[in-house]
Design a protein that fits this description.
elongated, single chain, five-stranded antiparallel β-sheet, alpha+beta, 143 residues
Length: 143
């Protein structure tokens, strides 16, 4: 009887572990969820400018790195040119959203004085974000 009880307990533990591994996110790497929205500016628009792109995160994060690259460049280069690359040593403020080209508090260009490059209509981009060990990516297109 004791061996049957031990077997049942052992089986229940194994099945619980398999269930937790396959059907929960307990053992998966957490990722930053990113959404974006292009907000049309009011009034007259120039043909060579694009509307502001706002990025939204699933919760507040203390960002340590933020990088935007062209998908065309990423397809042909192992290390694509960053159109906008910000870093924070340790003093970034918690953010849930930010606008392309406007640095979130406590972040600065990776290369001092470097300004974000303008985005172009019809091109595909990828934003990569890090908050300590948590990372997230999102592909987006300017309409």
């Amino acid at each position: 009887m004791k061996s049957q009880t031990k077997f049942l307990i052992f089986s229940a533990l194994i099945l619980s572990a398999i269930y937790a591994y396959r059907f929960t996110d307990w053992f998966k790497e957490k990722k930053i969820q990113i959404k974006y929205r292009i907000v049309p500016e009011r009034g007259a628009r120039k043909l060579d400018t694009v509307d502001p792109v706002t990025f939204y995160l699933d919760q507040e994060y203390l960002l340590s790195s933020l990088k935007v690259v062209s998908m065309d460049d990423a397809a042909t280069n192992k290390y694509p040119h960053a159109l906008w690359h910000l870093v924070s040593d340790s003093n970034s403020v918690p953010v849930t959203d930010f606008v392309y080209g406007i640095a979130p508090g406590g972040m600065k260009p990776k290369i001092a004085g470097l300004l974000p490059e303008p985005l172009r209509r019809g091109e595909n981009y990828r934003i990569s974000i890090e908050a300590k060990k948590i990372k997230g990516e999102k592909d987006f297109q300017i309409h």
